[in-house]
Amino acid sequence: MAYVRDIMKQKSIVAKTNDNIQRISKELTEKKVSNMPVVNAKGELVGVVSEQDIIRAMQSESFMKMSAKDIMTTNVLSVKENDCLEYVSKIFMEQPYRQLPVTRNKKVIGVITREDIINSFLSHYY
Questions:
Q1: Which segments of 1-126 are extended strands (E)?
Q2: CA-to-CA distance for 69 and 75, rounded, in angstroms?
Q3: Where do the structural domains in the chain lie, given as residue ranges?
Q4: What is the pTM of this model?
Q5: Which CATH class is domain 4-122?
Q6: Strand 99-104 and strand 79-80: pairing?
Q7: Which pLDDT belongs to residue 121?
Q8: What is the reported pLDDT for 123?
Q9: What is the pLDDT of residue 11?
Q10: Can you point out the beta strands (E) in 7-58?
């Protein structure tokens, strides 16, 4: 049985709650990811900022003054490093997420993506 820890990306980009929207947008664009975890001063997961959150925030006149804490989604689904890939696959089938934060003791230790799952399963065939 394969686990999240076996295929997750350990070097994930994260935003801090006070990071400005310009930095976040630049990171998302440069790293070609659709969202990034947001952590507090202790490094604990407190939210996620997605492209959709940024587009929604752009409707506000104060858009350029906003930070991660102003636009992040706080109801965050994360997975643990010891979760099996079948469990994570089911989440990706049932939810619109493209990637999920991986946490240990509330701290972000990586991310796992749909692509990671697909590559893991297909690696058995090639």
A1: 15-16, 35-39, 45-50, 79-80, 99-104, 107-113
A2: 13
A3: 4-122
A4: 0.88
A5: alpha beta
A6: parallel
A7: 84
A8: 75
A9: 78
A10: 15-16, 35-39, 45-50
